[in-house]
UniProtKB/TrEMBL annotation, chains A, B, C, D, E, F, G, H, I, J, K, L:
Species whose genome carries this gene: Nesterenkonia sphaerica
Protein name per UniProt: DNA starvation/stationary phase protection protein
Family statement: Belongs to the Dps family.
PROSITE patterns according to UniProt: DPS_1
Domain called Ferritin/DPS: residue spans: 23-162
Length: 164, 164, 164, 164, 164, 164, 164, 164, 164, 164, 164, 164
C-alpha cells in the first residue's frame, strides 16, 4: 500500500511535499522518543529534589506529545503516511537509548540536557532547510524549538556553576 | 468619507500599509464567504455519516470566523477601513457561489475540498508578497494557512482512495 | 436536486412545512446579513467611546449567529434545504448594503438602529403569520425578537435625546 | 391516599388543573419510555457508524430526562401526584415495546424515527388542547416539541434519500 | 423630564407600548418587593428545618432578581422609564408589608405561599391582557410564571396535609 | 436476530460470557427500575423536610443511571445484547411496582429502604457468583454495592430510633 | 412575637448585642435602598456613554446585595430579627427617594455620588461607635466601607474637572 | 531541638513574637479539635433532618481546617514551631472530649452550640490581648471570629424557641 | 446510648457488621492521626527543599482526610457509631505521638516514612481479615492502600541511596 | 547501578516485590506500545468514517498513557526501576510492530481489535498470578482491564456482523 | 496640573486625605519595586532547587502586583494622583537597587529576606500612623502585611539553621 | 559574578547568543516600563469615558507583563542574566518618564499612542537584526509586535479624526 496520497498542500508541489514529510518523519521519531524518555526520568529520578523535578517533567511530557501530534498531522497533511511505531522508531533513529535507569536528579538532568541539545539542533537544521519551500512547516518548527529551548533552560538552571 | 486613516503601523510607511491592506481585503472576503459556506454545508449535508460531519464543521466555522476578525482588525491597524459587507463581498469576489444545497456527505466534502484549495492558494500567494515589507502580516497569514491546511486534510481524509 | 425532503415535522402537513420554511429563508438572510454588519461596525467605528461600543457588539454578533443557526436548522427540520450562501443572500434580499465604512460611534449607531428596526418588523410579521399552523416556529421567532429588541434598546440608549 | 392536592396553580381552577395534569401524565410516560429506549439503542447499535451514533444519543437521553422531570414537576405543581413507575407506564401506555435489540445503525434509526413521530404528534395534540386554559403548560410543551423535532431531524438526516 | 422616549419597539405603536409598560411597572414593583421578602425570610426563619429552608430561598431570590431586571429592561425597551425606587414601590403597591419577622419555618412558608399566590395571579392577568398586542411581553411573563409556580410548589410541598 | 455476538472478552470463554451477561441483565432491570423509583419519590414526597429529601435524591438518581449504563455496556462487552426496555423490565422482574404515590417523607424513606435492601442483596449474590470466572465484573459490582449501601445509610439515618 | 433571641454572640453581653444590632438595622436599610437605586440607574441612564456605565453598575449592585446579606446575618447573629421589608425601609429611613428617572449619564452619576457620600458617612459613624465593644462588627463595616469608597471613586472619576 | 527560630516578624520584637505564638498555640488546639468534632457529628447525627444537617457541617469543617492552617502558619511566621499533634492537643487542652456519639440532631446541635461558645470566647480573649502589639494577628483572629459566630448562628437557629 | 444500630448492610449479618466496624475504628484513628501529622510536618519542615516538600504534603493531607471520611461512613453504614474524637484517638491508639517539631526535610521525611509503614501494614492486615465476609470493605481498603503506598514512594524517593 | 531499591511496600517481602515488578514491566511495555499504536492509527486512518474514528482514539490514547504511568509508578513503589525506553521496549517485547500505515477504517479497526485482545489476555494472566500475594496490584490491573475491554467493545461494534 | 482632586473620602477631611495619600505613595513605590525584584529573581536564580523556587515566586509576584493596584486606587480614592512611574520610583525611593543578578538560590533568598524585612517594617510604621484618622487604610495595610509576612516565612524557611 | 552562562541555545554560537541577548535587554526595559505606565494611566485617567478606558488597560497590562517574562526567559535561555531592576531600567533606558499624572482620557491616550510608537519601532528594528542568526527570537518578537500594534489601534481609534 502506498505511503503517500495523490495530493499535497495547495501551492507546494508533490515532490516538495514528500521531501519535507521525509524530514519531518525524523523529527517525529525524535519527539516520540523524547516523550518516552521524559516519562522514564519522571519515574526513575531520586534524591532530595525528587518531587520538584518529578513534577517539572509532566508538563514537558504533555507539550512534547502535542508537538509529536502536530508534526505527524503535518506529515499527513503533506500527503505522506507518518510512522509512530516503536519498531520503526528504533530501527530508523540515529541515536542510542537513554543510558540511565534509577539515578540521582543531577545525573538525570545532565543526561536530559544532552538529549535536548540533540533534538534542538536537528529541529534547527530542518527548519533551515524547509523555509524557502514551505514557510508553514518552518513556522511550526520554530514554535516548537522555542518551547524546547525554554525546557532545556529549566534543566540547565539546576546544574549551572557560577563563576565569581 | 476617506477609507484610510492618517496613520499606519510604526516603521512601515503609509503606502506599504495601504498596499498590504488591499491584499488583505481580498482575504477577508474569502474568509467571510468560507464561514458562510461551512455553516451552509453544516445544515445541508445528509447521509449515513451525517452527525459526525455536521459536528466536524462547527469548530472549523468558529476558527474561520476568528481568522476573519483577525484579518479585519489587521487591515484597520494598517490604517484602512475593512469591508465586511455581503454586497461588497459578492461584487468584489473572484469566485462563484458554492454550488450545492442539500447533498450527500461525499458530494459536499468534494466541493469543500475545492473551496479550501482556493482559499489556501491565495493565502500562500499573499503571504509571499508581504513578507519583505511586513513580517507581522506574513506571520499572521502563515498561522492561518497552517490551520486551513489541517482542516482540508480532515476533509480529504474522508474520501481518500487507497492504492494497493 | 430537490430542495425539499419527503417529510416535514409530525402533525403539520407538507404544504404548511414548505410555506413556513419559505418565510424563514428570508429571516435567515436577514440574520446572516446582520451578523456581517455587526462585525463590520465592530471594525469601523471610531471616536471617544470606541472601546465600549466595539465590545458591546461582540455578544450581539454571537447571539445573532446562534439565531441564524436556529432558523436554518428549523428550515431543515421542516423539510426544506436552507440557503446560507452570500450570493443568494444578496440577490434575494429586499434591502441594500449597510451604507457606512469608517465612521463615528453616533453615525454607526444611528444606522444600526435602522437595521434593527427592519429585522424586527419582519420577524414580527412572520411570527404573526405562522402562529396558527406552527406554534413551535412562532415561539422560536418570539424568543429571537425579544433579544433583538433588547439589543436595539442598547443602541437607542446611546443617542436618546431627553426632553425637559 | 388521594392523588390530588387541595390546590392547583393560582388563577386556574381545580378542575382545569386536574384535567391538564391527566393529559401530562400520558406525556410523562412517553418521555420516560423514550429515555429508556434511547439508552437501549445507545447500547445495541452496531455497524461502521457505531461511535458517532452511540455518542449522538447521549445528549438526547439527557435532554429527554430533563423534559420528563419538567413535566412531572408541572403535574405536581398543578396539584396531582405524577407516576414515574415502570409498571404503571407499561400498563397505561398506548404503544408497544421498542422492537429491536442488537441491530444496525440504519435499522435502529429507522425505528427511532417512528418513535419520535409518535411522541411529537402527541405533544402537539396536548399543547393544542391546553393553550386556552393554561398558557404556561402550553409554552412548556412547545419548548419540548421544538427540541424533539430537532432531534428527529438529526435522525432523519442519516437516512435521507436524495432525488436528482 | 418626560418618562417616555419617542420610540417603542418596531411594529407595536406608541400607545400600545406605553399601556403595556404601565402594566409591567406594577409587576416590577411586585418582583422587587418579592426579592426583598425572600431575603427577609431567609434571615428570620427558625426551627428544626432552618438550614434547608434558609438555603432553598437563595436561588429563588436570585431568580426573582433576574426577573425584575428582565421586566424593567422590557419597560425601557418599550420606551418608558421604569421605576425601581423603594418609595414609589411602597406608595404605588396594592398590598401590605409582609407580616412576620422572626418566626418558625411553618409560619413563614404559610405566609410566603400567600405572597406567591398574589404575584402569580397578577402575572397571569397581565399576560392575558397583553397577548394580542405584544406576544413578546406575553412570552416573557409566561416564562416567569412557570418558574414562580414551581417555586410555590416547593413551598407548598412542605406543609401539605395528606388525606388517607 | 441473535442476541449474542460471536465474541466475548479475551480469556473468558463464550459460555462464561453468556452466563455472566444473563446475571447482569437482571441487575440492569433492577437499576433501571431504581432510577425511575428515585425520580418518582423525588416528585411525590411531601412534608416539613421536603426540600432536603427532594434534593438528596437527585445525585442518587444520577449515580444509579450511570450504574445502569455501566452494567449494560458490560453486558454488551461480554457479547450479549442488553435490554433496557420498560416492557421487558416489567415482565421479567421479580418484584412489584413501588407502592406509594404522594406520601410523607417518613413513609417514602421507609419504602425506599426496602427497595435498596432488595437491590443490594441481589448485587451481593451476583458478585459472589461471578468472582471466580470474571474478576472484572466482580469488581464492577463491588464498586456499585459500596455506593448503594452508602445511599441506603443516608435513607436509614433519617428514621433511626435511638435506644438509651 | 419578640424580635430578639435569648442569646447574643459569646463574650459580648445581651445589651451590647441589641444596641449594635439597632445601629446595623439602619445600615441594612441603607444598603437595601442602595441596591434598588443602583439597578434603577442601570435601567434609566442614557447618553453616549450608556453601555459602559450601564455595565459598571452591575458588579456594584451584586456587591451591595452581598453587603446587605452580611449585615442582616450579623444582626441575627447578635440575637435580633433584622428587617428587610420595603415598607419598614421607607418609614424608618432618614433620606428621600432617589430624585431621577430617565436622565443623562452625567446627571445620574452626580446624584449617585451624593448617595454614596451619605451611605459612607453613616458607615464610618457606626464603625466608630461599635469598635470598643465589638471589633468583629467594626471590621465588617471597615471592609464594606473600603469597597464603597472605591465604587464612589469610579463614579467621581467620570466627572472630575481638572485644574491646570 | 529549639522550638523557636532566631527571628520573628519585622518590627515586633522576639519576646512579643513568642508570647503571641504561645497564645495562638492554644487556639490551634481548639480549632484542630473543632474540625475533628464537626466530622464526628457529621457521621453520628440521626433523625428526620439528617441530610440537611449532615451537609451543613461539611463547609464548616473545611473552613475550620483552613483557620487551623492559618493559625499554625502564623505561629511559624512569628518564629515558633506550632504543634498539630493529637497527643499534645489532648494533654494540653483545657476542655473534655465531646460527649456524644450517635444521637439526634437536636442533641448534637445543642452540644455543638456549647463547643462554639467556648471557642469563640477564647478567640475574643486572645484578640483582645494581642491587638496592641500585633494588629496583624488581631485582624486574623477577628476574621475567624466573624465566621465562627456565623456558624454558631446557623446551629442556634435550629433550636430557637420563639416567645409570643 | 447504644453505639450500634439495629441494622447492618443487607446480606452480611449483624455480628459480622459489628466485627468489621470494630476493625475499621482502629483504621479511622490511624487516618485521623495521619492527617494531623501531615499538616504538622507541613508547618514544621525547614531547609533548602522547604517549598517543594511543604506543597507536596497538602494533596496527601486532603486525600487522607477523604479516606478517614470514607472509613467513618463505612462504619456507620455497617451499623456502628464511629468515633472521630481526639481524646478517644489518643487513649485507644497503639502508637506514640509523632516525635519531631521543627526539623529538616530529611529528618521529617525519614519519620514520615515510618508512619506510613505502620499505617499501610495495618491496612493490609485488616483487608486480609475482612475479604471473606465483606468484599466491599476489602475493596475500600485496597483502594486506600494503593494511594498510601504511592505517597510513601514519593517520600522514600527523596532519601533513596543509590548503590553503584 | 542497581535497578532495585532496598525496600518494597510494607508487608509484602522483597522477593515478592521484585517478582511482581517483573511481571508489570511487561505490562508497561505493552501499554507504552499501545499508546504509540493508537496515535499511529489516529494519524493514518482514512475513509468515510474518518473524523468519528479519528476522534474516538484520542481519549483511548489519553487513558492508556495514564495506565502506563500508573503501572510504572507501581513498579517503582514496589522497589524496582521501571523502563520506559523505546529500545528496551522493542528488544524485550513478545510481539511485532503494528502492520499497517495508511489504511481504511475497517482494516485499522480489525488490526486494533487483535492488539487489544493481546493486551487484555496478558493483563488477565498477570492479575491472576499476583492476586494472592498483592491484592493492590491485582486491583490496579482489574481496573485497567475493565476499561481496556470497554475500548475493545467500541472497536468491535464497528465491524460486527449480524446474523438473522 | 494639580495632583489632588477637590474631594477625599466622606468624613475624613481634605488635609487628612492628602497626608495619608502621601504615606501611601511611598508604599506604592516599595510594592512596585518589589514586583520587579521578584520577577528579576525568578529569572536569575540557579542551582539544585531551581524549579521549586522559580515557581514559588510567581504567586508572590501576582499578589504584590494586586497590592500595588490596591494601594494606588486607594491613593486616588483619597483624592491624590498616584505615581507608578519608574523614574519617580527610582528618584524618590529610600533604598538601593537589588544587588544580585544570576546567583544561587541561597544567595537570592538571603537578599529577598532583607527586601521583605524593609517593606514590612515600613508597612507596619505607616499602618500605625493612619489608624486613628482612617481605619480603612489601616485595615488595607494590615491585610497586606499579613500576606507579606507569610511570604517572608516561606523564604526564611529555606535557610533556617536548626540548633540542637 | 559573570552575567553570562557557559552555554547558549544549541546551534547558535556563544557570541551570537550574547549579542541577541543584549538587544533583548533593551526590549525588556521597554516592556517593563510599559507595564508600569499602563497601570499608571489606569489609575490617573479621568473624564466621561473613565470606566471603559480604565478597564481597557488591564488586559493590555497583563499581556505586556507576559511579554516581559517571555523576553527575560529568552535572554536567560540564550545564556545571559536579564535585568529586571528599576534602577538599571532608568539609568539604561533611552527615553524619559511618562509626562502625565492625572489627566483626561484624550490627553492620556494621545501620550500612550506615542509610547506605543516607540516600543513598536524598536521591536521592529530588533526583529530585523536577529532574523538571520536566530529565527526563534525573531518569531517571538513578531508575535509581540502583532499584539502591540493591535493595542495601539485600540488607542488610536478613540481619537481618530474623520475627514469627509
Amino acid at each position: 500500500m502506498s505511503k503517500t496520497a495523490d495530493y499535497t498542500v495547495p501551492g507546494l508541489g508533490k515532490a516538495n511535499g514528500e521531501e519535507i514529510a521525509g524530514l519531518l518523519q525524523d523529527r517525529l521519531h525524535a519527539l516520540n522518543d523524547l516523550q518516552l524518555v521524559l516519562k522514564h526520568v519522571h519515574w526513575n529520578v531520586v534524591g532530595p529534589n525528587f518531587i520538584a523535578v518529578h513534577e517539572m517533567l509532566d508538563p514537558q511530557t504533555a507539550q512534547v506529545r502535542e508537538f509529536a501530534d502536530e508534526i505527524a498531522e503535518r506529515i499527513a497533511t503533506l500527503g505522506t503516511a507518518p510512522s509512530g511505531l516503536s519498531g520503526e522508531l528504533v530501527s530508523e533513529r540515529r541515536w542510542e537509548d537513554y543510558p540511565l535507569h534509577k539515578a540521582s536528579v543531577e545525573d538525570h538532568l545532565a543526561e536530559l540536557d544532552k538529549v535536548y541539545t540533540g533534538v534542538i539542533e536537528d529541529h534547527r537544521q530542518v527548519l533551515g532547510k524547509v523555509g524557502d519551500t514551505d514557510p508553514v512547516t518552518e513556522d511550526l518548527l520554530i514554535g516548537q524549538t522555542k518551547e524546547l529551548e525554554l525546557f532545556q533552560w529549566f534543566i540547565r538552571s539546576h546544574g549551572e556553576k557560577l563563576t565569581a
